[in-house]
Design goal:
Number of strands: 0
CATH topology: AhpD-like
Strand content: under 5%
Order of helices and strands: HHHHHHHHHH
Helix content: over 70%
Radius of gyration: 16 Å
Structural class: mainly alpha
Number of domains: 1
Distance between the termini: 20 Å
Length: 176
């Protein structure tokens, strides 16, 4: 599978998603590692099989093994962190804001690729998972690394479209 088969799997009512996949696959504000790693991280974050298979197929040859592993690691670590830090942000007891998380997060410090690219993957996954506290933290790190508004927006747009594609395919599978 690849991006074209993923687009073909979408129903006619999701034409905008097909078009957005095409547009984002040609995004030029991000380099290939940034763009395709973000696609892959978001596919693993949403967990829908066709989306994952298509984006694994599309990223083969475009990502190093290390970048693909880092994209998967970003999805995994953010699945945990986004829940925990969203909790600390939303709960009405401020003590949780200063209490150590006591969760292992070593991959964030040593992701196996350039740290700013890993932060980009984490930003997109955090947007998919809806954790404002994590998005703020990753956006701050991306700004320190020199990323522009356009680049941050591009990664979040990828996350939004991958999420919508996966939800559409999952909904269609439920009624098939």
């Amino acid at each position: 599978m690849n991006l074209e088969t993923l687009k073909a799997a979408l129903p006619d009512y999701a034409k905008d998603l097909k078009l957005n996949l095409g547009t984002l696959s040609n995004e030029t504000s991000l380099n290939d590692q940034q763009k395709w790693g973000t696609f892959l991280a978001c596919a693993f974050a949403v967990g829908e099989p066709k989306t994952i298979q298509a984006l694994i197929g599309e990223t083969e040859g475009r990502l190093t093994l290390e970048a693909a592993k880092a994209a998967k690691a970003a999805a995994a670590i953010m699945a945990m962190n986004n829940v925990y830090y969203r909790f600390t942000h939303l709960v009405n007891n401020e003590v949780f804001l200063t209490t150590p998380a006591k969760l292992r997060m070593t991959v964030i410090g040593a992701p196996g690729i350039e740290k700013p690219d890993f932060e980009l993957y984490c930003m997109a996954v955090s947007a998919v998972n809806g954790c404002g506290k994590c998005m703020d933290a990753h956006e701050d790190e991306l700004r320190k690394a020199g990323f522009t508004t356009e680049q941050v927006q591009a990664c979040v747009r990828i996350g939004a479209v991958v999420n919508a594609v996966a939800r559409t395919l999952a909904a269609e599978a439920a009624i098939a």
